[in-house]
Amino acid sequence: MNQPTPKPGSRQWRGVIREYASRLDVTDATPIVTLGEGGTPLLPAPALGRRTGADVWVKFEGMNPTGSFKDRGMTMAVTKAVERGAEVVICASTGNTSASAAAYAAHAGITAAVLVPEGKVAMGKLSQAVAHGARIIQLQGTFDDCLDIARELADVHPVHLVNSVNNDRIEGQKTAAFEVVEVLGDAPDFHFVPVGNAGNYTAYTRGYREDIQAGNATRMPRMFGFQAAGSAPIVRGEPVRDPETIASAIRIGNPASWELALSARDETDGYFGAIADERILEAQRILSAEVGIFVEPASAISVAGLLERAEAGQVPAGARVVLTVTGHGLKDPQWAVRRADGTEEQPVVVPVDTAQVASLLGLGA
Ligand SMILES: *Cc1c(COP(=O)(O)O)cnc(C)c1O
């Protein structure tokens, strides 16, 4: 397929498939579907270092084209689907997968069908699926019900499933670990991630493992994954029928990659923990106010998890820690303006009067 490509040597990031072609299952003939995903910033967070004594870095996955890490897996899943001749991709989603599938399908000129739990998807995410022209169906059930139906349909109809049970998704997502190793020169001591279906937890572990095999890294980080307390099946050791949390991206009661995640935990001397919603929102505020990174609630659980583990004495001083924050704060902005009592933060209103503005800002007369 003759595709327009950036000029050789251009500094524009080419998306994870072109950047890591030798480490993914693609050939010169693969019809790459990319929106330039990956190459996201890994930012030092000294404010979190002061709070925990660790050397903390934040992998800001909200900087992907549709605002979440899902794009890394979706470029690969849609590319492979198109390579196999698919005209329709289908997914179940708490929001970000549908936004990503819709965008990549639009770019490829194919159809995305998305199944979402009724009334449970943040407006920012739903608006993306609408804007990109997805066929959206709200199910009167949970995410887990949506995934069951998507799998059933993909089994018997010519529709291609692009949930993270699709190995192409995990393959694309492993590239985030490659980027971390490139920036730091080795794997960190700890890597903290939010956990929903546990696909990303699994993907990072695979990426680090491959980097060790390739001689790029010398060690495996301890993989620490976090679920919301009201939606913590892996921590509890059993599915949760009606998961509840404000962190809608990880409101999942029966993770698709559960078994893979347990073996990844064992392989990495890892850990799964549960965090209460109030702690998640507190961590979201700390990250926006002290580091300058605005993330959606589910993403802030990495920060909350670090604060909790450090308090428990489980993160040695000076340990190098990477936190993946998975989605942008603009996806689900309502929580940032909500006060503890449920009312909304309203910036002060004044007449058009310089003196009044000066006085409110404490600038004197
Ligand atoms: C999908 C998603 C997660 C959960 O990732 P899994 O691979 O399902 O564990 C976490 N945060 C955000 C913002 C997501 O979109």
UniProtKB/TrEMBL annotation:
NCBIfam families: thrC. The lineage of its organism: Bacteria, Bacillati, Actinomycetota, Actinomycetes, Micrococcales. Catalyzes the gamma-elimination of phosphate from L-phosphohomoserine and the beta-addition of water to produce L-threonine. PROSITE patterns: DEHYDRATASE_SER_THR, RHODANESE_3. It comes from the Bacteria. InterPro entries: Rhodanese-like_dom, Ser/Thr_Dehydratase, Ser/Thr_deHydtase_PyrdxlP-BS, Thr_synthase-like, Thr_Synthase_bac/arc, TrpB-like_PALP, TrpB-like_PALP_sf. Keywords: Amino-acid biosynthesis, Lyase, Pyridoxal phosphate, Threonine biosynthesis. Signal peptide: none annotated. Its cofactor is pyridoxal 5'-phosphate. Its EC number is 4.2.3.1. Pfam families: PALP. The keyword Glycosyltransferase does not apply. GO terms for molecular function: threonine synthase activity. It comes from Agromyces soli. It catalyses: O-phospho-L-homoserine + H2O = L-threonine + phosphate. It is an enzyme of class 4 (lyase). Pathway: Amino-acid biosynthesis; L-threonine biosynthesis; L-threonine from L-aspartate: step 5/5. This is Threonine synthase.
